[in-house]
Amino acid sequence: MSLNGMEIAQRFIQTCPADKKFDSNLASATNVFLKCVSKGELPVSSIRSAFTFQVPNKADSEASSDVSHKPTSGLDGDSSEDEGDDEVDEDEEDFELSRDFKGIDLISEYFPQRPRMEELLKLEPLFPELNNFHVPDVTRMKEAVPHTRKAGSSTPKENREHYLQASNAPKSLINFVKVAYPDMVAAFGSCLLEKLYEKDRKVCRSKAIATVERVLHPEIYMERVVYDLDYLLETEQSKMLITSTESPSRLLSNCDEKRVGKRDTTVSHLNFESRFESGNLRRVIQVSNSEYDLILNADVNSSHHHQWFYFEVSNMEAHTPYIFNIINNEKPNSEFNFGMKPVMFSVQNAMNGCGFWIRTGYDICYHKNHYSRVPKSHDNIRFKRSENKCYYTATFTVTFHHAYDVCYMAYHYPYTYTQLLDYHSQQEARHLRSNTFFSNQVLCYTLNGNPVPLLTVTNMDNVQDKEVIFLTARVHPGESNSSWVMEGVLNFLLGSEPEAQLLLDKFIFKIVPMLNPEGVIHGNQRCGLTDEDLNRRWRAPDPTLHPTIYHAKALLDYLTTIAKLKVRVFCDLHGHSRQKNVFMYGCSRMQSWWPGDKDLPDNPDFMLLPQLAQKYMKTFSLRDCHFLIERARESTARVAVWRQFNIPMSYTMEASTCGCDQGKYKNKHLGTNQLMESGEAFCFALSYLVTPPEAANSQQTLDSNRIEHHPRMVSERSLGDFSQEVVFWSEDLDDDLDSDDDLDLDLYGPM
């Protein structure tokens, strides 16, 4: 389209009638404009992560999606996987299938990689409940992380000091420059229910017009870089911060309270920082006095997976609207279009006694922009399909209440690796019930040398007669809500409720609460240090590249082959960014991609836990559950565990990063209280597994025939009509899509 043609399109967009019935015309015109205009390069020196990790034995291992392939046309790119158990786009699905099933005839036999018997026997110290409750010192987490709490209550000041000490234990690719204040004070979300944001269509119109203006008249914008992580890491000062094999000579701290109320007179813009645990912000460009473009850092060793953000902002004026545009999102839609707000923490508010995260922002919109997405290098087909793709912008406006405050903003309530270690330390210092056994051991070490916690919780009676409930979480680091749910689980199990006693009398709980500490530490969205989705490595994990998955799976192998204990439930906790409520994915033979699975009937228990969750979890939605077994998901935890260990009750449980559209919390955000409540209620639902199966089935009137009539549980799901041209923004997500269905299609509906 010539320049004159684009100006004509611009005038049409600007003069389009304001009536709602013309919104689709405006959206279509904007979309055509963005398709025709020359794509701009993302204003960053490299789309690859600002820091990298030397992956061991990479040449001899299963290739990652982005690191070890020969570049195509000198380009390297992104993928559109969403979080959760089962989301992957079409090209990635083909790539997964070629890797995971090449040369394997599933019809004849399912032959996953399994540890040798001598390797399994080495795991015996990780089962103290089977060895007179003796925990070898060498396996104790406190031996790996020496900053532990003393028994008894602590003051807030003591809690802060303990956190600051503990924050120096994690190893990172760079030494961080501070501890984030909300992490130091163990900030929760607000105790008040917070409503979902009601999107204003007029805002969407104005964003469409502003996007066109930015393309046609870039000269009127400042384009001043005010934060550049790459530059900071390249300076002499930051070179000194690169982690060495020795412990850092400088301990981390936080001086935010001293900074509050003080203006930085050396600059005339907001100040930003992200060099702290779980932080993610790569570059900030000031485009006007009160508007900023933000660029997120890719996952380590990657050039994609942009969603999680967590950064500090300061030097603001009070009661001034500031516009933040995160311009390198990859997913074709977001809950930012359907009610979700980001979260913010104010240090000034905390000093005034209100130290909690709140949902914030208005004029929120998620839309396509004109920056070109660079394709992945491993797939020429992807290059052809991706060459016209754009990034997406998440934009929101924030008005700060205090001048020169120090605030933190995040995609969701952060939950760091240090916070996890600190929480476990608190539990070890508690006075538990006399017959309750709680151990905190080191399962293994990550590629960068960080210990991975393994928790065991049970009562010290009749261990050999018990069954096992195996729980995992945080395989995708950007899904911090799964950690909040897991904390709720542990609060319940270690609490005084009679149902907790009932559970521990019947079950041994083996819990790996953070499968991907490296991703969490470094502010990743989906991967760890190898640019691999660890939830696609459960069928055959590499002990060197995927140690957490390898050892977690080996625990299951030990339980079933050596200890001869029945694993009643396996559940992997996740977060979901494009769907509301809490829900589960399970495994039904009748809904499997492989015809051979249908030769045997479904175990009647496969739907039991979702049914119980529907009854006892206020956030749960049975209609959002499904029980499909798809070929591309054979390497996910849910399916691999179900197939290899014959565990009918193998699930993924997803919690929305947004909120609920049904039940008690309809049209409300899910805060940390609701997420922890979900974990506690999940345990309450589990307690009903103590009753004999026939009684539970009778009590719950579980009827598997419901699947045939339930719109969210059918084996053939409608994916909608994607033949329509993509539009600039949308009213509704396709309700028939879940996290299995990121088909790399733009999920935009009619206006």
Quick overview of this protein structure:
The protein is α+β, with helices and mostly antiparallel strands. It has 22 helices and 18 strands.
Number of helices: 22
Bulk shape: globular
Q: Report, as a whole number of angstroms, the end-to-end distance.
A: 26 Å
Helix proportion range: 25-40%
CATH superfamily of the domain at 130-141 and 415-708: Zn peptidases
Query: Can you tell me the CATH topology of the domain at 130-141 and 415-708?
Result: Aminopeptidase
Average pLDDT reading: 83
Low-confidence stretches: 59-83, 85-103, 241-248, 376-386, 698-727, 730-751
- Strand-pairing-aware structural class: alpha+beta
Proportion of β residues? 15-25%
Explained architecture:
The protein has 751 residues and is α+β, with helices and mostly antiparallel strands. The chain has a domain at 130-141 and 415-708: Aminopeptidase (3-Layer(aba) Sandwich), CATH 3.40.630.10. It is built from 22 helices and 18 strands.
Which descriptors apply to this entry?
alpha+beta, 16% strand, Aminopeptidase
Write the layout of secondary structure elements.
Elements: H1 3-15, H2 23-36, H3 90-100, H4 117-121, H5 141-144, H6 156-166, H7 181-184, H8 201-216, E1 224-228, H9 229-234, H10 236-239, H11 256-259, E2 271-273, E3 283-288, E4 291-295, E5 310-314, E6 321-329, E7 343-346, H12 347-351, E8 358-359, E9 362-372, H13 380-386, E10 390-399, E11 406-410, H14 417-429, E12 436-445, E13 451-459, E14 467-473, H15 481-493, H16 498-506, E15 507-512, H17 517-521, H18 547-561, E16 567-576, E17 582-585, H19 608-616, H20 637-645, E18 650-656, H21 672-687, H22 693-700
Parallel strand pairs: 4-6, 14-15, 14-16, 16-18
Antiparallel strand pairs: 1-3, 2-5, 3-4, 5-11, 6-10, 7-8, 7-11, 9-10, 12-13, 13-15, 17-18
Helix pairs in contact: 1-2, 1-8, 2-8, 15-21, 16-21, 19-21
